[in-house]
Amino acid sequence: MYPMLKHAHSGLRWVVLALLLAAVVNALIKWRSGKGYTESDRKTGLFAMIFAHVQLILGLILYFIYSPAVQFNEYTMSDKVIRFYTVEHLTTMLIAIALITIGYSQAKKKPEATQKFRATFIYYLIGLILILAGIPWPFRFPGAGWF
Ligand code: HEM
User: Is position 124 within any domain?
Assistant: First the structure.
C-alpha cells in the first residue's frame, strides 16, 4: 500500500501543476483582455482546486499512516529528511492549498469578471509558487524522483 500511495502522490503532482498553471494563465489572459467570466472559467479553477485537495488527502494518509519519513520523536528536528517531510513539506503545501481554496471562493463571491479573474490569478499563482517550492525535486534536497 505504501509504495502505491507514494507513487500516486508523486505522479499526481504533474496533474496538479498542469491544472494550476492552466488556471493561472487563463485568469491572467482574460483579466487583462477584459473578457467575461464563463462557466468554463469557473471549472478551470474548480478542477485545479479539486486535484489539489485529492493530493492533500493522499498526503494526509501518507503523513499519518504510512510514511517512515514522518516521525514525532527526538529526531524530528535534527534529521533533515524527517524534518522536511514532518514539518516543511506539510506546512508549505497546507498553506498553498488553503490559498487556492480561498482564491476559488473569493472568485465565486466577487460580482465582476475582472475581480474574479484577479482573485483566481493572485491566489492560484501564490499557491503554485509555494507548491513548486515545497516539492522534493530530484535536483534539490531531499531529492525524490520525477514521478
Ligand atoms: C499539491 C501538494 C503536494 C505535492 C505536489 C506533493 C508532492 C510530493 C512529492 C513529489 C513527494 C515525493 C514522493 C516520492 O518520494 O516519490 C511527496 C512526498 C510526501 N508528501 Fe507530498 N505533496 C503535496 C502535498 C502534501 C501534503 C499536504 C502532505 C501532508 C499532509 C504531504 C505529505 C507527504 C509525505 C508524508 C511524503 C513522504 C512520502 C515518503 O517518502 O514516505 N504532501 N510529496
Answer: yes
